[in-house]
Design goal:
Integrase_catalytic; 109 residues; two-stranded antiparallel sheet; single chain; DNA recombination; mainly alpha; 6 helices; 2 domains; extended; Integrase-like_cat_sf
Length: 109
Amino acid sequence: MYLAAARIRKDTKAWFFRAAIGWTAKLASRPLSRTDVWYMVQRRASDAQLETAIGCHTFRATGITDYLTNGGALEVAQRMAGHSNAKTTGLYDRRSDDISLSEAEKIGI
């Protein structure tokens, strides 16, 4: 759907994530910058009234964690993330956070 709306389905050289032209709801031919992505994430988080601070790496950590939780291999996650070292990929692994949350829920106040 996005490829058709962006009119890039047949253009294999086009940028996949493209910048918007002001507030016109039209896409430019230039790529979306890192800064634009960060501001977009912050706007969406604010619109969703999220209390936790999030950024682009939040999505990377979520994707890697979900992949590993569903039986994926760390080495494959490393390649998908484009990391040269598995230790870097391990920094995005949030599976142990679930354990901490379930343990914290045992506290009765």
